[in-house]
Amino acid sequence: MQLRDIDWSVLRGSLVFAVLALAVSTVLIGGGQWFHDQMRGKFEKEQKRFQSNSRRYLAVDEEERLISSNLPTYRALEQAGVVGDEQRLAWVETLREVSASLKLPAMRYEIMPQKEYQAPVAVSTGNLKVYGSPMKVHLGLLHEDDLFRFLDVLMSRSLGRFSVDRCALRRAAPVLQTDPGKANLEAECDLLWLTIRQPGDEKVR
């Protein structure tokens, strides 16, 4: 059979229906793909938002955990006079009291300007800043045990925290002195008083 032998009038309705069906199928397929792309885009957007919220909630949980675990230590440092302004007057008064209580022959001191503390090893302090106030203490001693007694009592009585960077001893007299008002030894110690400053209160005084 050849094309010219086909009665197209009979098939016209079927052909029109087939063409319409093909067109409708194409539209449906295209619409379905468009709908799928839109839904996928919305899904990915919501998924990113969910992940962002999850990270934020996890960060808040971690921050709360850190606060809960570190707050007691921070409060203890506050009560000890470590947090806030440097306590120069309290340090000096304590030096004088300790020296008098131990009946040391002599004591004098020098306090240098405060500066930001550089730890010898990496330490995370968050957004807090640690500052150090260097102090030189010169002591007249009857014997070397007086130096250790002085540092021990100073540590127990002082407001704040300090480290002993260096101490040097030398003879103060060529012969042993029996007078308790005269020193047999002289000590020079470098102390570093530590202060923690809160955010927004980091101006060095």
Short structural summary:
This protein is α+β, with helices and mostly antiparallel strands and 205 residues long.
Characterize the structure shown.
- With 205 residues, this protein is of the alpha+beta class.
- The protein folds into two domains: 1-79; 88-197, Ribosomal protein S6/Translation elongation factor EF1B (Alpha-Beta Plaits).
- Helix content is 48%, strand content 22%.
- The chain contains three helices and five strands.
- The protein has helices at residues 8-79, 88-101, 145-157, and strands at residues 106-111, 115-116, 129-141, 161-171, 185-197.
- Strands 1, 2, 3, 4 and 5 form a five-stranded antiparallel beta sheet that branches.
- The mean pLDDT is 77.
Keywords:
rod-shaped; five-stranded antiparallel beta sheet; 205 residues; 5 strands; Alpha-Beta Plaits; alpha+beta; 22% strand
